[in-house]
Amino acid sequence: MSRLHRIGLLFVAGFLAGHGVGAGRLAAAVETPTLFPADAAREACTDTPLRLTFAAPVVAGAKGRIQVLDTASGAVVDSIEIGAGPATQAIGGIDGFRYHPVTVEGGEVTIHLRNGALQRGRDYAVTIDPGVIVVGGAPFAGFGAEAPWRFATRTDAPPADAPRLVVAADGSGDFCTVQGAFDFLPEDSNRPVTIFVRRGRYTGILCLYRRHGVTLVGEDRKGTVLAYPNNANFNGSGGNPFAGTPAPGAANPRQGGAVYRRGMLLVHQCEDFTLANLTLHNTTPQGGSQAEAIIVNGSTTTRTVIRDCDFFSFQDTIQINSQAYITRCHVEGDVDFLWGTGPAFFEDCTFRTLRSGAYFTQVRNPGTNHGFVFLRCRFEGAPGVKDNYLTRVEPHRFPDSEVVLVDCVLGDVVHPVGWQLQRARDATGDPDPGRVRFWEHNSRTPAGEPVDDSRRLPASRRLREPADAAAIEHYRDPVRVLGGSWDPRPAAVLRPAPGAG
Questions:
Q1: Percent of the chain scored above 70 by pLDDT?
Q2: Which of 112, 334, 379, 479 is the most exposed place for a label (fewest CB within 10 A)?
Q3: Rounded to whole angstroms, how far apart are CA atoms 130 and 143?
Q4: Widest Cα–Cα separation across the chain
């Protein structure tokens, strides 16, 4: 019998005996968890989460403490009070993120230490109070100071100029978390680097801030999953997410004003960022408020490429405030789940709405750049979902909003009117469309037939050849739409993910 198993049996036997539970119940209730890092492991990543995996379902207890100590100095490097609620820390150099220090899923408990809590080449001891974890209805004994869970971190770091970093949830890479790899990169670095993420599920809020030339690529589009239930109720920072000047009282003026922290992945002020071949899932349940899978805040010259990815959330799945090219992606949501200021060019993508009577997009571009353009994309819905609008906007607030569809397939889920203009709350009558561009060309049904556009919103426009040939050619060209003479297509070529070796 292992040391950990023996300690657990002694504690739980006493607890259950005191509550009138017999030996048969004890045998069913008590087990030894699988630990990561393993007890006495010597080469743990400095960004490692701490995981305990049980065969039975697990819940967090009502109270108790988890502590991680540096065994040489005795210093507490992180301390978590169960029942105290979320903690707050800086992520990726942007302060004020709330996060859950402990998460539970099925039989797995994950302890998320503060970023930077662990250092290289150090020995650590973990103590967990009895009852912090409840397994199958019975309290887990935890680990006391006399017999803690021990591990040591690796001494060596990747070379500072490494062109490629590997993230692996099992600890076999350079880092265990994507954020650990992000934080390894120096701020304002322009050196191209690829972060390769092996198959696995990675739980946490992610922020890449002022790191340039970064490619984040998964080993497997379906099997490399970045997930977290972040949302506006949890991280309710407000203000203008694409402000060009600091907000009054901003803690970090270089952030560019108030920054939404509600997304699962925030890419903020990064040039030449590429995201490829993985899944992003904001696991906030439906109705849980605005909850992006990704927010990209840049400029009209930051050159973002997103290719071969799947995005799942409900409201506001993707927010793009940047020069961005998105191709061969799948995006699911229920209300305004594609939105931002652009300019953004979507090619060969699929968008799936999950709620009737809702909206695919809400685009808020200024008149100085294009909005969202869709080429050869599919707009579809979950079974039974109907009457969705391609977009909505308040023209008195966003008079230059632009949404253009070229050669797209529209399922029955799209409302026959197609587009919606919303008036000011205190106004009456139809809103003035102003300079809004709601345009489409060659929209087809899934069967390949022309879409019946006879009931389209009068303020919208159908582009037809030959009269509109020049405009159609313009909107089929990402270089013209995105501006700056940037051709993103070479960076978006479909190719195998780099090997895991």
A1: 88
A2: 479
A3: 8
A4: 86
